[in-house]
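Protein Record: Sequence and Backbone Structure Tokens
======================================================

Structure line: whole-number tokens from a learned vocabulary of local backbone shapes, matched to residues.

Purpose: to set a sequence beside its fold so the mapping can be learned.

___
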Amino acid sequence: METIILASQSPRRKQLLEWASVPFEIQVPATDEDFPPGMELCDIPVHIARQKALAVQPLVSGERTILAADTVVVLGDHVIGKPVHREEAVSMLLALSGQVHRVITGVVLLKGDKEKSFYDSTEVGFHPLSVEQIEYYVDRYKPYDKAGAYAIQEWIGVVGIRYINGDFYNVMGLPVSRVLQAINNW
């Protein structure tokens, strides 16, 4: 497999590609993660991933495959982003406590003028969590770089997740098997 360009600074995406034995180099783009108002929820992470891939494309020589992804957490019709501070992280987790939400990851592959894009959606149900549990998690794990203020592979996922319906790795930030299928069927 060719060495791809990962347009992401996410340690989880890096780890997932390493687990899948995918050779890659990291190029971290400076991009805006805004999206147009009224955009369909499933299109938001694809739009942001496309912006990341396009930001990296001028930095890449030749016909190399660029992989960009973005993950959003959706509760009802509301996108929950990354918390800025402790109080916001606690507030986000209180909103998710005892609820079912969706984790949507948008993926964009660029190679020259060709593009493949898709999203993957996973339903996640949380047990009711106490304020003490939430504060323990936020204080110990500091989930400020994570959509929805949590990582499923950390403590809160072990004790707080009631069920998931879909791809576990999508919740971590990259539906790896779908990415590999897309690259192999390029």
Summary: The two ends are 12 Å apart (CA to CA).
